[in-house]
Each structure stands twice: as C-alpha cells, then as structure tokens.
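Entry type: protein chain
Record version: 2
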Amino acid sequence: MKDPWSVFHEILSTVTDCLHDDGFAAYETAEPLPGVFMSVPVPAESGGGEECAALRKLREMRRIKSDETPFSRLYGGRDAAQFVRQARFLADFEDSMPGAGKISCRMARPTYSDLSTEQLRAYFTWRTGYRRGDVRSAPAAFALLHAFELIHGVGAASSEDRADKLAALWRWARGEHPQLDGKFHAWFRDIYLCGDFGCTFRDLVLRCGVKEWYGEVFCEEGDSGFLRLMLRLADYRGDRSRFFLENPRLTPGLEHCFLVVLRNLKPLLLLRGLTLDDLMLVQPDRWSFYEPFREAVHYAAAPWPDKRVTLSNMESYRCRGGSWSRARAFDLNYGSSPVLGYIVRRLEAEFRNQADYPQKSNPRAAQVYERWVGTPSFSRLLWDVVRDPRFDEIVDGVARAWWAAGGALPADCLLPQVRDLAGLLAEEPYPTLFRVREIGQNGTRAGQRRQFAQQAALLAPLEDGTPFSENPELPEELQGGIPPFPLYQDLTLDQLRDYLRWRTRFRRGKALPVDLSVLHLYGTELLCRAGTEDAFRDLCRLLKAYASGDRRAERFLTAWIRDDYLVRPPAEPFAELLRRYGAEAWFPAVFLGDSDLRDPLTLYNHLSQYKILASRFYRPDRHMLWNDCWRTVLAAVQGRCAAEGLDFLRFVRGAPAPDPDWLPFADAVGAPEAPPPPERTVRTLGPTERYEYAGGLWRCRLTAKTPSAAGALVGFLLKRMEARLRLLTRGKYRLTAEPAPLLRTLGRGKLYDLAASGALGIVVDEAADAWAAGQDLSLFAEAQRQKAPKPVAQPEPRPAPPPPVTIDFSQLDRIRGEAAETQRKLTVAAEEEIREAEAAPRQVSWEVPGSVAELFRSVRPSSADDPVAALCAALSPEQRRAVAEILAGTPAPPDELTMEAINELALDFLGDTLLDAAVFPPVMHEDYRAAWQAAAEKCST
C-alpha cells in the first residue's frame, strides 16, 4: 500500500502538468482581480512552428523533476535541485515572443516552476536579447532569475566568466531595480568564496569594475581612509561636544590629531602583538555563522571543501565541515570601540587645556575599564596597551605638538619616544619575533604542528641575557596571563621576550622560578628537536629542576619523556638512559626487577595511593626493618580477609581489563606527529609497563596498575602501619589513619563491612605490635630526631612579685622540717627522670634528601612573635598551594602525604596541627584561618 503523502504528491504533479500543458497554458489577465490568479485556456495551435517548438521545449522542461521529497514544496520551500536541472536543460534556449515586454512578474525568489508559460517565454525573450547586447527593461524577477542561473554557472564558461557576467547584471540592475543592490553585493562576494579563482578578491573587484561598491577592500591599514573609518567607530563623538561646537575651527584639528595618534600608537601595539585593526574590533578571532547565497535559489550538489578566504585585512571567512563562518575586523554598528573613544576624549581634554577653556576634562583609563570589562568585546592584550603610561603620553604629546605647530603638524610625524621605541623594535630579537608571528597555518592540527615546528626552528638560536622586564600588575579579573598549553602566537612580544630570557638562563644552568605554561612551551620545543642535540637529556634536566616542586609539571614531563622514548627508541634501554641523566626517581616501576618484585614495600608503594617511601618518617637506610614490619602486616591482613572468604591479593591486583588506547604526546599541542612504527611492534619500559602497536593503534598494558579502590586500601594499610610505628617510637607527630576515606572508595560488600567495623585497623595495629615485640625498637626511636627548624624560643614574661607573706615564727621549726622533706622528694624524682631519660633511646630523624624545589623556596627568618608566618615561610610553594586549595574548597584536595607533611611541620612551629585531615574534604582549623591569610599575603609579595 502506497504512502498517503506519495499518492497526494502524484495527484498534485498530475494537476500541475495539466495546468501547464500546451492546450491549457495559464497566463495572467491584463486586469486580474485583487488576490485572484485567473487561468484561461489557450489553444494549442495559436502560433507558428517556432512558437510550437518553444512550447514543446518548455513542456519538456516542466517534466524534469528532482530526487528531493515533495515536503519542501508543500511547506513553502523551493526545490533548488529541480531548478538547477531545469536551468542546465534550458542553458542555450532562445525565444522571441511578441509583446514580451508587456508581461509582468512579481516574485521575490522566482523559479521556472513558479512562472506561467507566457512569463517563461517573456523571460527567455528578454534573456536572449540581453545576451546579444539588446538590454531592455524587465521586471526585477527576471534579473533575479538570471542571477540564480549565473550563481550555478549556467551560461558561464568559468568562474571568472560567471563573476564578470554577474557584475554586468549588477550594474544594469542598479539603474532599473536599486532595491536589489544589497543582494548582488553579497552574491558577488559569495561567488568568490565558493569558487576557484587564481587571483585575490581585490584583483577580481578591479577587473569586474565594482571597486566603488567594495571600498573596505581597498582600505589599507595606515592610510587616511582607513584611519577616518576608525574615527567613526569611536563610542564618543568629540565633534559634537560643546567645546568643538563653540570652536568649530578646531574640529579639523581633532581629526588630524586622531590620525597622527594612530600612527604613533602602532609600535606600542606591536609590542603586544596587535595591529591597528584590533582597535576597531576588540574581539579578535570571533567567528559567527555565515550562509552563502542567502535569499537566493541555491543548490550545492556536494559539501564545500575546508578552506579559509581573506577578502581584506578587515574581513575573512572559513569553511569547516561544509559550514561557513565569518570574522569581521570591525562591527558595522558604528560607535562600538571604547578605546577609540578614550583617544578622542583625551585629545579633547588636551585641547581644552591648551585653549584655557573654563570647563576642564580629565578622562582616565580606569573609566574605560569599568565600562568595558565583562563585555564580550573585552580584550586583555588591548587593555594592557591602554593602561601603559606611554599610551597617554603619546595621545597628549600629539595634541601639544599640533597646538605648538599652529595646526601645521605633518601627518607622518613621530614623537621622540615613539622613534626610540621604533628603533628598539628594529633590533634583535624583535625582527625575528615578527617573522615568527608571520608564519601562518591552515587551522588543522597538522597545520598547527607544521607552524610550531617552523616557528621553533626560527626561534631556537635566539638568546637574550638582558634583565627581565617588570610588567605592571594586572587587576584581579586578568590574573592568569599565559594559557595552560601555549603556542608562540598566544604570547605577546613582551612575554616572548621574557621567555627567551628564561630559556637563555636555563640553557646556561640557572633554573629560575617560572610558570607552568613556560615549561609546556619549552618542553614542546624539545619534542620538536629545536635548539637541542639530545632532547631526552634536556627533558630529564627540566624534570629534575621543576618536577619536584610541582606535581602537575611532574605529570606531563614524565609522560613526554616516556612518549619521546617510545616513538623514537634509541639503542640503549630506557632504564640505562634514566640512570645516566639522574631521572630514575620519577620512574620507580621501570626498575622493578626480580629482586625488587620480591621487595613488598617497594612494590606496594608503587601500587598505593599513599606513597610511604616519600614520608618524612621513612629513611632508606632502615628499609629492611620497614620490609619486615610490612610483611608481618600483609600476612595478618591476608589471614583476616581469608577468614571472611576474601582474596586480598586478587583484589589488589585487579581483574584483567582490555588494554586502553594510547596516544603519544596527548597534551603537547605543537608536538610533531609520531611516525608509525612497523606493524605489531612491542616495546617494554619495565616489568610492569608494555606498549603494543598493531592495526594503526597504540595500546598500553600496565600489569601492576590497581583499581582506585585497591590503591586506597593499600594506602590505608601503609598509613596505619606508619601511624602505629610513630606511636610505638614516641614520635612527636601522630598520624591520623582512619578508614573513612577508604569507605568512600570501597563498594558495598564484605571488605567494606570489615573496614567499617574497624577490624582492619586493629589487625594492622596488632601485627605492628607483634613485630615490634621481637625487634629492637631503638633503631626506629633513633630516627625520630626533629627535622624542621624550630622557632626561636620566646622569653617567658617575668612573673609578678608575690604578695607579702606573714610568717608565724612560733611554727618555724615545723615549716623547716616540711621544707627539708619536700626537697628530698624532689631530688629523688629528678634522679629517677634522669635515669629514665638515659635509658630511653635517642631519637633520630629519618631524613629524605631535599628536593630541587627547596632551591626556589623563599624562606624568610621565622619570627617568634608570629609562628603562623614562620610556618608559612617554611613551607614549600607546592605546600602553600595545597593549603590555598583547601581554603578555597576545591573539589580535588591535595594528597594525604602533602597534608601530613604540612601538619608535621606545623607541630614544630605551632605545637598543633594546621589541617584537619580526618574530614572530607579537609579543612583548616578555625583558630588559624585569619592569621594564615595574612601570612600568605606576606609570603606572596
């Protein structure tokens, strides 16, 4: 059974064919009734043979259908595919109908199917004469219909011929139908966008003779027309102010000074990587959707290819995935630039000062910021230029120079400070930095890689040993500066210059504190082999210098070192290279050999979320004692789990899972694409890590990676064991090892019930006590010497003098006897304490070698008056960031080891812990919050 819509479509097509048949051709009467279309039958043999041939041709055209569904026509759409097929069928059709000029046609988007037979013959009669040079008056619908044909290339031999004929039709239509001017303006541009031309749009406009209608294409940066356009875009019309209305002879001076100011601002803009275009539209790279051939009957048989077309320095277009978007260098709604308005205000203010006008004006950049910040058009780079003191000096200096010269200031005049700045930009490294910025890319990921490789090769030999520039402090809304994974085009010239200064010092062996984004940029350079003979060595050097102080740097640098080895495998094993360059501490799993796999503490430390080997309590020369204790704890835990029907080892190792896909250099935006190795390649970094390449994909297999619940379980056991050992050795700092964090990770089951009841903690405590009973605990107690610097002891205040005592001399003998007895008891107690202290083991600190981050730690002398400030100064930058994250309530708090280290150090300075790690998320004790915020502000300055 046929679909009802298909049946209805067949009936509708049959009726349409009958209405447009030769024997029943419809036409409009000379005087149609209002709102009524009247069809009158016309005899089939009403003309000669030529007329019959034309009718037969049109009848054949009407029988051409498209493959589209009928719903577009039913709901008021246009069947563009049918129109294209019909237009190509009638591409060379000619007609000579008598009285064709008297036929009217009023349609906004006409197609052949919409026109009656007489209207069609009248159109083709007009088109025949138009092509032969006999241009006559015609309805606007005929001009639109012919434009639709040219848009699809009907009647044109090439793209250039199509543009020429559309421009000629446009010139004719401007005199006959000026209302079509805007449509032809857009369609001529769209022909260039979607076509294949071997010239620029500017050359095409000149050749087709439509220059007067595309003035913005010929408006170059720096010429008077371009600068006057910018004056109209200012959000303040100075010529309409009261001052200039009262002094009209000064109005030309305002425009002249405005042009001179823009020319003088160009070097200052170049320092930020900006141009004069950015003063007009402070929305760089703001793309909006664009539809080519809007309001035209247009049909694209295939999607447009990806491309980017620049019409002028103020307008560009791009196509991605068959969809077009547009970016304009200025908003057509004039009066949108607050920066240009600020220039006009400052010029007027200086004119008022020079003319001794009673009402003064004092515009400030802060007023621009208040109106501008928070809007979509706000630009941080442009705001840096406006708040630069040289900006106001240039604007005021031009106004004073014009006034001093009596209005005879040359248009190309440069102020002395601008000439000095232009001379600076002419010296290295600025010319090279300009060439780096000129290297473009096509917007694809591959094009981005090629662009970065070319820029890095050009920038690699540059060195800069000059002092760092002191940039002004930004407002709170603009903190952050460089993006996380920057490329060269994301940095201003000042930032690039500072980057060169830092890179030069790092290459010479001096590692200065630097933002994480700079490490990303330099690491990507090394991956591209720019300025280095051994990228693996330099990446390891960068890792050792900065990763110990920042876990985020450690995360991406270790991944890039691993990826660089895998995609470009040298002759030596991975472990040998790490030993040579001293980076083995960041790859513990690589060195897990047969003996290490039998070392349970090292293995479980790798699997655990709590890295006990990095604890302040752990000391490498007591590693065997720790191993013995951990073996005892493991045996007790496995036995307790077995009694509940649980397999502890199977839970820790995790169930087998499919190997995840692995992508080299996933976080390196500009890193080169890794060349594919031969098929079925297997590369092993260590006994627990293997990578396989097959079928065009990399896969990673980690044989010692536990699930998060198992890592949390092992971490709880290790931390509980350390807490018990601290208690047994009478350590000053006591760890908090409660099962609450573990329960948030474990799923419901027997293991959850076992941990929730506290049985696991009791098992660990009993196992540690049993092991300690058979061991010499003096080895542990000896390692409990305090490590952190102690604050200077505050002298105790002298007590107030006691009140006078009245002595009863009659009781003097009794008082003397009691005093002698008390002195004897105190002497005996003191001797007992001395003997206990001598018998007690001496405490020694299990000290871990200091990290490289301590070199950059800004430690200030501790003050006994403010122990919180002393503690803040003693913490590393990473630890201070962790405290700041806890205060801010971030969803991902620091790891337990960092919080315990902070609390252990706080115990030395405050006599109390700073953080409450027993709750989740952890918080700071209320007693120290206000003091810590004040101390943190001092440490950051």
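Comment: Strands lie at 288-290, 307-312, 315-320, 323-328, 661-662, 681-686, 689-694, 697-702, 915-916, 923-924.
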